[in-house]
Design brief:
Elements lengths: L1 E4 L6 E4 L6 H20 L5 H8 L3 H9 L11 E2 L6 E2 L6 H4 L14 H15 L1
Antiparallel strand pairs: 1-2, 3-4
Helix pairs in contact: 1-2
The protein binds zinc ion (2 copies).
């Protein structure tokens, strides 16, 4: 057993292999239950509806989807973290997972100076 900071609430807790403190785990289980129960009755619901009807944060619902825990209840999708393609679980779409897009490295970003200059010009043009 070692002491760790809970990644969700930041509280120090003794980690026994699970990622969250017992309070957050409990909250997670309760939220998951709410979402699952709702999706069982409304398998066609989208994330916004689930959020509205269950009160569970969108971020959490997304986490459940990424973990694949809702796959058997719905076809909810989340966005690939690299290209934004809709996926039904995990963090990346098939293409990104295989590294197909890794060659597209980001182009050099212009310095802060250049960006400030640009914004000023755009603002001036509007007024
Ligand atoms: Zn916690
Ligand atoms: Zn992708």
């Amino acid at each position: 057993m070692q002491l760790k900071n809970c990644p969700r609430c930041g509280k120090l807790f003794s980690s026994s292999g699970r990622g969250l403190c017992s309070q957050c785990l409990q909250e997670d289980a309760r939220d998951y239950d709410l979402v699952r129960t709702y999706l069982r009755k409304n398998p066609g619901a989208n994330m916004v509806e689930v959020n509205r009807e269950t009160g569970v944060e969108l971020g959490k619902i997304e986490e459940f989807i990424r973990q694949g825990r809702l796959l058997s209840y719905s076809k909810l999708q989340v966005a690939c973290e690299i290209c934004g393609e809709p996926i039904t679980g995990g963090r990346l779409c098939d293409d990104c997972r295989r590294g197909f897009r890794s060659e597209e490295s980001e182009p050099e970003k212009p310095g802060v100076k250049g960006r400030v200059h640009l914004e000023r010009r755009r603002g001036g043009g509007l007024s």
